[in-house]
Task: inverse folding
Protein backbone atom coordinates (compact mmCIF):
# COMPACT_ATOMS: atom_id res chain seq x y z
CA UNK A 1 0.00 0.00 0.00
CA UNK A 2 1.26 3.46 -0.91
CA UNK A 3 0.71 5.57 2.20
CA UNK A 4 1.36 8.78 0.27
CA UNK A 5 -1.33 7.92 -2.28
CA UNK A 6 -3.77 7.03 0.51
CA UNK A 7 -3.04 10.32 2.27
CA UNK A 8 -3.47 12.32 -0.97
CA UNK A 9 -6.75 10.57 -1.74
CA UNK A 10 -8.05 11.21 1.77
CA UNK A 11 -7.09 14.90 1.72
CA UNK A 12 -8.56 15.36 -1.75
CA UNK A 13 -11.80 13.56 -0.86
CA UNK A 14 -12.06 15.54 2.40
CA UNK A 15 -11.76 18.86 0.59
CA UNK A 16 -14.40 17.79 -1.93
CA UNK A 17 -16.61 16.54 0.91
CA UNK A 18 -16.49 19.92 2.64
CA UNK A 19 -17.16 21.67 -0.67
CA UNK A 20 -20.11 19.42 -1.52
CA UNK A 21 -21.56 19.84 1.99
CA UNK A 22 -21.29 23.63 1.79
CA UNK A 23 -22.79 23.71 -1.72
CA UNK A 24 -25.64 21.43 -0.64
CA UNK A 25 -26.40 23.65 2.36
CA UNK A 26 -26.46 26.76 0.16
CA UNK A 27 -28.67 24.98 -2.39
CA UNK A 28 -31.04 23.75 0.33
CA UNK A 29 -31.31 27.27 1.79
CA UNK A 30 -31.99 28.73 -1.64
CA UNK A 31 -34.70 26.13 -2.33
CA UNK A 32 -36.34 26.87 1.03
CA UNK A 33 -36.18 30.67 1.04
CA UNK A 34 -35.51 31.73 -2.55
CA UNK A 35 -32.60 33.84 -1.25
CA UNK A 36 -28.97 33.31 -2.03
CA UNK A 37 -27.43 33.74 1.41
CA UNK A 38 -24.36 31.48 1.69
CA UNK A 39 -23.38 32.54 5.21
CA UNK A 40 -26.88 32.05 6.63
CA UNK A 41 -27.07 28.59 5.06
CA UNK A 42 -23.92 27.19 6.61
CA UNK A 43 -24.25 24.64 9.38
CA UNK A 44 -20.73 24.04 10.73
CA UNK A 45 -21.77 20.99 12.76
CA UNK A 46 -23.11 19.23 9.67
CA UNK A 47 -19.95 20.12 7.74
CA UNK A 48 -17.81 18.55 10.47
CA UNK A 49 -20.07 15.47 10.61
CA UNK A 50 -19.78 14.81 6.87
CA UNK A 51 -16.05 15.51 7.00
CA UNK A 52 -15.71 12.96 9.81
CA UNK A 53 -17.51 10.36 7.70
CA UNK A 54 -15.26 11.15 4.75
CA UNK A 55 -12.14 10.72 6.90
CA UNK A 56 -13.42 7.29 7.93
CA UNK A 57 -14.74 6.06 4.58
CA UNK A 58 -12.08 7.30 2.14
CA UNK A 59 -9.24 5.11 3.44
CA UNK A 60 -11.58 2.11 3.49
CA UNK A 61 -12.65 2.75 -0.12
CA UNK A 62 -9.05 3.35 -1.19
CA UNK A 63 -8.00 0.02 0.31
CA UNK A 64 -11.01 -1.69 -1.29
CA UNK A 65 -10.09 -0.37 -4.76
CA UNK A 66 -6.46 -1.33 -4.20
CA UNK A 67 -7.57 -4.86 -3.18
CA UNK A 68 -9.71 -5.21 -6.31
CA UNK A 69 -6.91 -4.05 -8.60
CA UNK A 70 -4.31 -6.26 -6.91
CA UNK A 71 -6.45 -9.41 -7.10
CA UNK A 72 -8.14 -8.71 -10.44
CA UNK A 73 -5.78 -6.52 -12.49
CA UNK A 74 -7.41 -4.95 -15.52
CA UNK A 75 -4.17 -5.15 -17.45
CA UNK A 76 -1.24 -7.53 -17.21
CA UNK A 77 1.78 -6.16 -15.36
CA UNK A 78 4.10 -4.00 -17.44
CA UNK A 79 7.02 -5.98 -18.82
CA UNK A 80 10.42 -5.58 -17.18
CA UNK A 81 12.75 -3.14 -18.98
CA UNK A 82 14.75 -6.02 -20.52
CA UNK A 83 11.51 -7.46 -21.94
CA UNK A 84 10.57 -4.21 -23.68
CA UNK A 85 12.81 -4.83 -26.67
CA UNK A 86 10.56 -5.78 -29.52
CA UNK A 87 11.75 -6.12 -33.08
CA UNK A 88 9.17 -4.45 -35.28
CA UNK A 89 9.66 -2.97 -38.72
CA UNK A 90 7.87 0.34 -38.24
CA UNK A 91 9.84 2.46 -40.70
CA UNK A 92 11.42 4.29 -37.76
CA UNK A 93 8.12 5.72 -36.47
CA UNK A 94 8.18 4.04 -33.07
CA UNK A 95 5.71 1.47 -31.87
CA UNK A 96 3.64 1.43 -28.73
CA UNK A 97 2.43 -1.98 -27.73
CA UNK A 98 -0.62 -1.69 -25.52
CA UNK A 99 -1.50 -4.42 -23.11
CA UNK A 100 -4.95 -5.94 -23.75
CA UNK A 101 -7.74 -5.37 -21.24
CA UNK A 102 -8.43 -8.42 -19.10
CA UNK A 103 -12.20 -8.54 -19.64
CA UNK A 104 -12.80 -11.31 -17.10
CA UNK A 105 -10.96 -9.46 -14.30
CA UNK A 106 -12.66 -6.19 -15.20
CA UNK A 107 -16.08 -7.87 -15.05
CA UNK A 108 -15.25 -9.46 -11.68
CA UNK A 109 -14.03 -6.10 -10.31
CA UNK A 110 -17.15 -4.38 -11.57
CA UNK A 111 -19.49 -6.97 -10.04
CA UNK A 112 -17.67 -7.00 -6.70
CA UNK A 113 -17.55 -3.21 -6.58
CA UNK A 114 -21.23 -2.82 -7.39
CA UNK A 115 -22.39 -5.53 -4.97
CA UNK A 116 -20.12 -5.87 -1.94
CA UNK A 117 -18.68 -2.37 -2.36
CA UNK A 118 -22.09 -0.79 -2.93
CA UNK A 119 -23.73 -2.53 0.03
CA UNK A 120 -20.79 -1.64 2.28
CA UNK A 121 -20.74 2.00 1.19
CA UNK A 122 -24.49 2.55 1.43
CA UNK A 123 -25.05 0.73 4.73
CA UNK A 124 -21.80 2.17 6.08
CA UNK A 125 -22.84 5.71 5.20
CA UNK A 126 -26.28 5.36 6.78
CA UNK A 127 -24.94 3.78 9.97
CA UNK A 128 -21.82 5.95 10.13
CA UNK A 129 -23.55 9.30 9.73
CA UNK A 130 -26.18 8.24 12.27
CA UNK A 131 -23.49 7.36 14.82
CA UNK A 132 -21.50 10.52 14.11
CA UNK A 133 -24.65 12.52 14.80
CA UNK A 134 -24.95 10.82 18.17
CA UNK A 135 -27.50 8.18 17.23
CA UNK A 136 -27.76 4.76 18.84
CA UNK A 137 -27.21 1.36 17.23
CA UNK A 138 -30.98 0.97 17.12
CA UNK A 139 -31.22 4.23 15.17
CA UNK A 140 -28.52 2.95 12.80
CA UNK A 141 -30.57 -0.14 12.04
CA UNK A 142 -33.66 2.03 11.54
CA UNK A 143 -31.79 4.30 9.13
CA UNK A 144 -30.51 1.30 7.18
CA UNK A 145 -33.95 -0.31 7.17
CA UNK A 146 -35.67 2.87 5.95
CA UNK A 147 -33.08 4.31 3.57
CA UNK A 148 -30.91 1.48 2.24
CA UNK A 149 -33.00 0.49 -0.80
CA UNK A 150 -33.90 4.04 -1.91
CA UNK A 151 -30.22 5.00 -1.59
CA UNK A 152 -29.10 1.88 -3.45
CA UNK A 153 -31.55 2.63 -6.28
CA UNK A 154 -30.23 6.18 -6.55
CA UNK A 155 -26.62 4.94 -6.48
CA UNK A 156 -27.40 2.41 -9.23
CA UNK A 157 -28.21 5.32 -11.54
CA UNK A 158 -24.74 6.83 -11.13
CA UNK A 159 -21.98 4.58 -9.86
CA UNK A 160 -22.13 1.62 -12.29
CA UNK A 161 -21.44 3.97 -15.21
CA UNK A 162 -18.65 5.71 -13.28
CA UNK A 163 -17.16 2.36 -12.30
CA UNK A 164 -17.22 1.01 -15.87
CA UNK A 165 -15.76 4.24 -17.24
CA UNK A 166 -12.98 4.07 -14.64
CA UNK A 167 -12.18 0.41 -15.24
CA UNK A 168 -12.31 0.64 -19.05
CA UNK A 169 -10.94 4.09 -19.89
CA UNK A 170 -9.17 5.76 -16.99
CA UNK A 171 -5.63 4.76 -16.02
CA UNK A 172 -5.44 3.29 -12.52
CA UNK A 173 -3.55 6.26 -11.06
CA UNK A 174 -6.24 8.72 -12.30
CA UNK A 175 -9.34 6.84 -11.09
CA UNK A 176 -9.43 8.64 -7.76
CA UNK A 177 -9.70 11.98 -9.58
CA UNK A 178 -12.64 10.81 -11.72
CA UNK A 179 -14.38 9.29 -8.70
CA UNK A 180 -13.78 12.46 -6.69
CA UNK A 181 -15.28 14.70 -9.35
CA UNK A 182 -18.42 12.58 -9.56
CA UNK A 183 -18.30 12.30 -5.77
CA UNK A 184 -18.56 16.09 -5.46
CA UNK A 185 -22.00 15.99 -7.05
CA UNK A 186 -22.92 12.74 -5.29
CA UNK A 187 -21.95 14.39 -2.00
CA UNK A 188 -24.36 17.26 -2.67
CA UNK A 189 -27.10 14.72 -3.33
CA UNK A 190 -26.26 12.78 -0.16
CA UNK A 191 -26.23 15.89 2.06
CA UNK A 192 -29.57 17.00 0.64
CA UNK A 193 -30.99 13.50 1.06
CA UNK A 194 -29.95 13.20 4.70
CA UNK A 195 -30.75 16.76 5.76
CA UNK A 196 -34.05 17.34 3.95
Result:
Amino acid sequence: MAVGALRRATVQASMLCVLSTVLAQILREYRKTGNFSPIAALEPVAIVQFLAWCLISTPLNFLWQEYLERHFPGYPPAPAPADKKVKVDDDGKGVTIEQPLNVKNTAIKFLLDQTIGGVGNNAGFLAGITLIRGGSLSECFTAINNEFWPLTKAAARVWPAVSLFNFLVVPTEKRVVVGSIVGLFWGIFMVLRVTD
